Sequence to fold (156 residues):
Amino acid sequence: MMTLVNYLTAEGAARLQEELAELKGPRREDLATRLRIAIEQGDLSENADYIAAKEEQGFLEGRIQELENILANTKIIDEMEQDKNIVGIGDHVTIQEDDYEPETYYLVGPKEADPRNGRISHESPIGRALIGHRVGEAVEVDTPGGKVIFKIMEIN
Fold:
């Protein structure tokens, strides 16, 4: 099975590590306590507290496993060597469509994408189209709304 690299900023990796520590520590301990209390109540087949806690335990352990896999295969964007003449992951790219106001996006990995806050995945249609292009180039992007042409104004 091929392992996918997860591109994260240092802040994004730190957030995921904090979440993992919280889940493996206090959250797991709290859940274990709830399970012990539910077990002490007797008949487990009709014990709603026990059933809910077991269900939550499944989600908790699944998220822990997911975070461990993400962090084990992470490449920190901030530490990557960047060629500021060509759009790449970790760049802030200012683009403009026709006569609209220019927009600046930070190209990040999918785990940190937040388009409303200017963070787009390098795997998104716009991100994929921008990668490898230079300032001044026009890039055609297939979006859900149709084809759009953006001009690359600046790479930081």
Remarks:
- The CA atoms of residues 43 and 50 lie 10 Å apart.
- The first helix runs from residue 10 to 40.
